[in-house]
Specification:
This protein is α+β, with helices and mostly antiparallel strands. It is 39% helix and 18% strand. It has seven helices and 17 strands. Strands 4-15-14-13-8-17-6-5 form an eight-stranded antiparallel β-sheet, with no helix packed on it. The longest helix is centred in the middle third of the chain and has 112 residues. The protein is elongated.
Length: 470
């Protein structure tokens, strides 16, 4: 075999080695994997590279940014690398045997499959430097390493630029946060001032209406006092006339009747006083922060009540349903409880009552009696009752039972519970006004929402109660 043929064999062996060599460790592939950009590396080499460079992940060869640490095991490439390693070892062994057969032994051969190139020196008599193979490989490796160094320097420069940018962002972040804090404090100061002014306006309005109502009451008090005096005087005169009554006196009686006719048919009247609605600016926006998804508990519903599939509405069914009389179920009262149980925190929900002529919503103890229809003990029930009789509309709270007339029917009721502070209140959602706030109390038991659409009242009260989605 000629020297030219041997060099060609060396070139082929080197080309084969390059194809089967890991770019990172420069050795034959060991458990090779292929990235999404098509380049292959030893599994451990790739993982170690990613570990050292952190994010963003990139291909160590082409530096393409990878979306995720995804790769595929390349078993065929691993088998080829093993064959290449064995083939190279066999070729080199044959060359050594040829060199030692009838020739002067060459110098020592330094060989490492994974890290070094083969350095073979032919005897001077051949006239051909067999270090050609190793020198070319060495140059290629040096070029690759120099490329890597250049890329690393570029990456270092980029990383330093990013680091400087991040340091600047730290300063900007602190400055922006400081500015935002100042803006927030300033805006809330304006809000506090606005709410203070609104509070003062509401108080002034109530004080003005109080003066007007007091004036009406005093004027009516004077009018009623004068009426009582006239009536007393009339009673005295008539009693005196009755004591001295003779047949001739009937003309006097008739005359007296004519004189006092206006008093006989005059009825005392109470003074009508009015107070503005207790509107709370921003009430609903604040309460909505504590909105709770309330649903109905079918196990507690009276057998005459019909619940919707989403457990958000209830109405009187008209006929008794075949339901088990379990201990939790109301048997006499047209009532159902909410499924939620409250033992702490703040909670708010809204109920659409629409045009119903009678309804009840509120909060009760979880231990409230479900059997019979007796009044609930004080402290067991905190509810709001709407009642319309003719054109007269009133709201009642329990317990104890208290009533107040209202100008317009309530369409939607907001219920607020602050368990920890012992506070329960009802709101008119439509005009954002307070209906009633119970005096603070201490809760020691679990509480639950309570609902009653009440009886149909001859067909005038068949609409459902609907728990609103806030």
């Amino acid at each position: 075999m000629s020297n030219h043929e041997k060099m060609s064999t060396a070139d082929l062996m080197e080309s084969l080695r390059e194809e089967l060599t890991c770019f990172i460790c420069l050795g034959y592939f060991s458990s090779p994997v292929t990235t999404e950009c098509g380049h292959s590396f030893c599994l451990m080499c790739l993982l170690k590279s990613w570990e050292e460079h952190n994010t963003p992940l990139s291909c160590p060869e082409c530096w393409r940014t990878l979306g995720a640490p995804h790769f595929q095991a390349n078993e065929r490439l691993g088998r080829l690398a093993n064959i290449g390693r064995q083939l190279r070892s066999q070729v080199l062994q044959n060359e050594d045997e040829q060199n030692t057969c009838g020739r002067t032994p060459g110098p020592n051969r330094v060989f490492s499959d994974d890290e070094q190139s083969i350095i073979n020196f032919s005897p001077p008599s051949h006239g051909t430097n067999k270090a050609y193979f190793s020198s070319e490989a060495e140059e290629q490796h040096k070029e690759k390493l120099q490329d890597i160094i250049n890329i690393l320097r570029k990456k270092k420069k980029e990383a330093q630029a990013v680091l400087n940018h991040e340091k600047e962002r730290v300063r900007l972040c602190k400055e922006e946060t400081k500015n935002c804090k100042q803006v927030v404090v300033s805006e809330y100061m304006k809000m506090h001032q606005f709410l203070k002014e609104e509070e003062q306006l509401q108080v002034q309005l109530l004080e003005k209406e109080e003066k007007e109502n007091m004036k009406k009451l005093r004027e009516n008090e004077i009018h009623l006092t004068q009426q009582i005096r006239r009536l007393s005087k009339m009673i005295g005169r008539i009693e005196s006339t009755c004591q001295n009554l003779t047949l001739e006196s009937f003309e006097e009686v008739k005359g007296a009747m004519d004189r006092y006719e206006s008093l006989l048919f005059q009825c005392p009247e109470t003074t009508i006083t009015e107070l503005s609605l207790c509107r709370i600016t921003g009430m609903r926006e604040m309460l909505r922060k504590f909105s709770t998804d309330v649903t109905l508990d079918p196990a507690t519903a009276n057998a005459y009540l019909l619940l919707s599939d989403d457990l958000k509405s209830v109405q009187y069914a008209g006929t008794r349903q075949q339901l088990p009389d379990n201990p939790e179920r109301f048997d006499q009262s047209a009532t159902v409880l909410g499924a939620q149980i409250f033992t702490c925190g703040r909670h708010y929900w809204e109920v659409e009552v629409g045009k119903k002529t009678e309804w009840e919503v509120g909060i009760c103890k979880d231990s409230v009696s479900r059997k019979g229809n007796l009044p609930k003990p004080p402290g067991d029930l905190f509810s709001l009752i709407g009642l319309k009789i003719g054109d007269d509309y009133s709201l009642w709270v329990s317990s104890p039972l208290k009533g107040q007339h209202v100008r317009e029917p309530v369409q939607k009721v907001g219920v607020f519970l602050d368990y920890d502070s012992g506070h329960i209140a009802f709101y008119n959602v439509t005009d954002e006004s307070l209906i009633y706030s119970f005096p603070p109390t201490s809760f020691h038991e679990a509480l639950r929402p309570i609902f009653s659409p009440c009886l149909p009242n001859e067909g005038t009260n068949t609409d459902p109660l609907i728990i609103c989605h806030i």
